[in-house]
Amino acid sequence: MALTPLPRVLFEPLVRAALLEDLGRAGDLTTDAIVPADATATMVLAARQPGVIAGLNVAALAFELIDPRTEITIIHSDGSGVSAGDIIASVRGPARALLTAERTALNLLCHLSGISTQTAAVVEVVRGHKAKIVCTRKTTPGLRALEKYAVRAGGGANHRFGLDDAVLIKDNHIAISGDIRTAIERARAAAGHMVKIEVEVDTLEQVDIALAASVDAVLLDNMSVEQLTQAVAMVGGRAITEASGRVTAQTAPAIAATGVDLISVGWITHSAPILDIGLDCP
Question: Which of 8, 170, 179, 205 is flagged as catalytic?
Fold first, then answer.
């Protein structure tokens, strides 16, 4: 499935804020002092390690916002795999703009490409099973749309984007409401007809209760592979099954083999290391 680019309106405020944070009150003192105002340059974005690219349009905007005369030529688009040494894109324009926007552009591009790279690694190890790798709401404040886009660039899928697009009844909701059935009944009474309801369960008994209440999805939290296998059999296609809890690239294949529909992985957004990318003079 083709990767749909993010609309600029979703990330332009984030890029502007990042540039303002870096420019401060006086702008780029170093570059403005050293580089002539009329100097132009061509530089390349180069991968220094293998991975999957995400965020080129975001990086390009950082350069453009400093000076609209900058031009970027993309060689490896978002979602593409690269090897160490590959030229991802070239950037041409006023030299001051390239140097001033460099860190903001790289911060975002390296971070998002790190997420897509780690996502792709987990997607690869479950290939051949029906399970989709999905992210969570464990995202960097302010960067959720970009980070979830990076997950898609890596071949993963998105869980809910926020508290307002689905009902997910978790353990604390159940504890405060008294029991699973009560929590589900209250949610169903309040939710609109387009809103799906998922409930987090950690025992097979709770799976039975959730199914009896006709939930749309069950979040099988921190279950063993044996429990997951039993839970999938119990559900029998009556609801979406999602496994979560301390999933790694090493444990994901066995989890996928249980037949779950989704495997949610928080660390692909909250702890993914950056992909090392540099802006170099060729």
Answer: 170
